[in-house]
Amino acid sequence: MGDMFRSEQMALCQMFIQPEAAYTSVSELGETGCVQFRDLNCTVNVFQRKFVTEVRRCDELERKIRYIETEIKKDGIALPDIQDDIPRAPNPREIIDLEAHLEKTETEMIELAQNEVNMKSNYLELTELRKVLENTQGFFSDQEVLNLDTSNRGGAGGDDAVVQHRGRLGFVAGVINRERVFGFERMLWRISRGNVFLKRSDLDEPLNDPATGHPIFKTVFVAFFQGEQLKNRIKKVCTGFHASLYPCPSSHVEREEMVKNVRTRLEDLKLVLSQTEDHRSRVLATVSKNLPSWSIMVKKMKAIYHTLNLFNMDVTKKCLIGECWVPTKDLHVVQKALSDGSAAVGSTIPSFLNVIDTHEQPPTFNRTNKFTRGFQNLIDAYGIASYRECNPALYTCITFPFLFAVMFGDLGHGLILLLFGAWMVLSENKLSRIKGGGEIWNIFFGGRYIILLMGLFSCYTGIIYNDIFSKSMNLFGTNWVNNYNTSTVLSNKHLQMSPNTSAQGVYPLGLDPIWQLADNKIIFLNSFKMKLSIIIGVLHMIFGVCMSVFNFVHFKRYSSILLEFVPQILFLMLLFGYMCFMMFFKWFKYNGFTSNQPETPGCAPSVLIMFINMMLFKNTPPLSGCKEYMFESQPQLQKAFVVIGLLCIPWMLLGKPLYIKMTRSKQVAHVKHNGELTGNMELAEGETPLPTGSTGNESAGGAHGHDDEPMSEIYIHQAIHTIEYVLSTISHTASYLRLWALSLAHAQLSEVLWNMVLSMGLKMPPYTGAIGLFIIFGAWCLFTLAILVMMEGLSAFLHTLRLHWVEFMSKFYEGLGYAFQPFSFKAIIDGEEEE
Questions:
Q1: How many CB atoms lie within 10 A of CB 116?
Q2: 225: left (phi over 0), alpha (psi -120 to 50) or beta
Q3: Which ranges does the record mark as transmembrane (predicted)?
Q4: Is the distance from CB of 144 to CB of 250 less than 8 angstroms?
């Protein structure tokens, strides 16, 4: 946990690598994932850099892999999972064989796909021809009768041939998409002025598109007409509506013969298609075994060349120079990676790593594990911590689930969250392999340890509240004794049980279950949870203010302890800390066992009214026989606290600007520029120097410095901070009342759901109640999960997040840094899988 208290120390390093060892060295650095490179070629166009040809080559390989992967997925072939055996970056010589193999596979797949499309097109045409021939039997029998009748009515003599020619009808047969039939029929009617007789029949089974494989619904049609001119018009209309025309003999015998020939050709074509599909499947199955490995190898190779484009070539063209941020703890790892990279290619000249003296703000790097990563992400969502600033994530691991549980205090609902979180934690190895689960699932799984702790803490607060699905548990019995007889209890609905006669000690753990039956249950819980939320809130804010001391000490701003921390903590403690003290003092002083009337519960003053009177210097007349104050010197003490608190405001407002004005140096100190190597900082293998940017005064770190600001800006800046702190102290204290409000709302919703839903099934008659309770219990479970666990849980989560971001972290956290983004193969591959 020590690494989480502050971000790690970073060093700006300069590395000198021989060109022949550059590829393997960067590959080793990508496997370690602890180096963030800087671009030394900002002024050079991306298309003019040294390794742009290799990057384009990798892009072409990725394109071929994507094409083959698309074809594999189209055939439903499963790709193997290689998360446990991820290959390393390939040798540049090995990539030549891979490139040739992918080229051959792609060419073969393109030829197979084209041949398959051509054969499927022929198969579709033959299928349509067969459908035309089979579905037009009735059409042509009607036409033959019609032609026969027309010829019989033609008359005799020399005009018989002309009359017979005029009486015979021509026809056009084909297939058209079903959605175009009505427009097609309308157009034929218009161009022929009603002289076309169209008969159609819808195909029962859809046909498959050769290119896409999508189903196509088509209709067979036959258009009867008279005359060549009308025939040409009909063909033009068919072309415009993309209708396929097929030859169809008018003779029944010829049609039967053609159908037999078409069916024979279809069987032969189907056999060829089946063989082609088998060959394609064998090729894809062979390729699919190695495709994931090839894909990762190409991605790593492309990332290496992208990184090498950030390097600069020295004047002699014999060395590559790069700059990078490295955590000081990993300097020996980087040095070893460079040595391994040089040894892999047999280079006799070693690579060098030098630490550069710089005054730039380094990136922020917090080393996390699978448990702390979720909490760190919550903090980073607000803002990346400034370099070496105190990291709130360390304390959020406990305070976040605890504040959530205060609002979500129910043993039953907490147990649901606990079981859900435990399932994700125990099955994380299997669940982490799930791809394409969606953004919501990734959020839940990434925060599995947060959910686990939220459920665990909710179970604890549920025990303290003695609340499980709105009911209480009678674990230890009750410490209250009924001193009334049965007739008195039954005849009087407003009996009260006095603590000094009916209470027997303190309940061992949590809330006494007898409060579940009390009429003043809500009044008691409101008072209890309201005070509890204020106490927790003030303690949380005091802890946040105290955290600022660690930042002041680390950045050597010792004056800020006196000029900022002291007035802030005095203002908070003397006003709101005193109010919390009075709550505890009131609980201890006033009880029902005393005979002194001013110390009885009826004389206990309201802490809220007392605090308001304290701030306004007012008095409230006490009740007869009671005292206004809890102890003798309280009014004088309160006036002193208010006066000191008011004096803290000008202390915060003017103290720091006046100190800066008096101590501002008139001499401009020498500032080293980036690129100046520290003396004797060339690293031998195994050495780990301290980063020079972290030595001396770190006032620049974390954006804390004011050396370049004019005094007017400093006065304005400090005035804004003072006003914000004073007002926010009041508003933030009131903001913690959301702990009470959401806890009360959650308990009441749970009680309403029990009384309005589940209790109905429990009150039903025995026989019908068995069935009714089964249905009602299902509805109660559904509403419990949807409303009380998911919706209320999300609400409590967001309110807890706000309490940490605004009320707690604003006291010491600036969040003005930028994240450390190392060159890591694992991060690159995981990022592309999420996309």
A1: 17
A2: beta
A3: 402-426, 446-465, 532-553, 565-588, 637-654, 770-791
A4: yes
Residue 693 has pLDDT above 50, yes or no: no
Judge whether 116 lies within some domain: yes
Q: Compute how many other C-beta atoms are within 10 angstroms of the C-beta atom of residue 492.
A: 10
- 264 in any annotated domain: yes
Percent helix, strand, coil in the chain (nearest 5)? 60, 10, 30
Q: How far is CA 632 from CA 235, 581, 617, 807, in A?
A: 112, 16, 17, 35
Total domains in the chain come to 1
Q: 449 is written with which tokens?
A: 């340890």
Say if 184 falls within a structural domain.
yes
CB 128 within 8 A of CB 207: yes
pLDDT tens for residues 718-756?
Answer: 999 999 999 999 999 999 999 999 999 999 999 999 988
Q: What is the 3-state secondary structure (H, E, C) of 759-802?
A: HHHHCCCHHHHHHHHHHHHHHHHHHHHHHHHHHHHHHHHHHHHH
Q: What is the per-residue pLDDT across 374-401, written as a single tens digit (0 to 9) for each?
A: 999 999 999 999 999 999 999 999 999 9
* Residue 589: C-alpha distances to residues 603, 629, 636 (Å): 11, 12, 20
CA–CA distance, 51 with 29 (Å, rounded to integer):
18
- pLDDT tens per residue, range 40-62: 888 888 888 888 999 999 999 99
Whether pTM > 0.90 for this model: the answer is no
Predicted confidence (pLDDT) per residue in 425-474, tens digit: 999 988 888 876 788 888 999 999 999 999 999 999 999 999 999 888 88
Place of tokens 């209320």: 792
Q: How far apart are CA 825 and CA 301, in angstroms?
A: 10
Burial class (CB in 10 A: 0-12, 13-18, 19+), 493: exposed
Residues written for the chain: 835
258-295 per-position pLDDT tens digit: 888 888 888 888 898 888 888 888 888 888 888 889 99
Its sign, for the CA torsion 606, 610, 613, 615, is negative
Dihedral sign, CA of 76, 80, 86, 88? negative
* pLDDT at res. 139: 65
Is 440 among the domain residues?
no
Are residues 547 and 569 in contact, defined by beta-carbon separation less than 8 angstroms? no
Residue 99 identity (one-letter amino acid): E
Going by C-alpha positions, the residue among 542, 555, 561 that lies closest to residue 386 is 555
Cβ atoms of 126 and 266 closer than 8 Å: yes
Q: Which domain holds residue 107?
A: 91-144+169-292
With contact defined as beta carbons under 8 Å apart, do 310 and 2 qualify?
no
pLDDT in tens, 101-126: 889 988 988 888 888 888 888 888 88
Per-residue model confidence (pLDDT) at position 147:
47
* Helical residues (DSSP H) of 168-290, grouped into ranges: 181-192, 228-240, 252-288
Name which of 9, 13, 7, 10 is nearest 38 in CA terms. 13
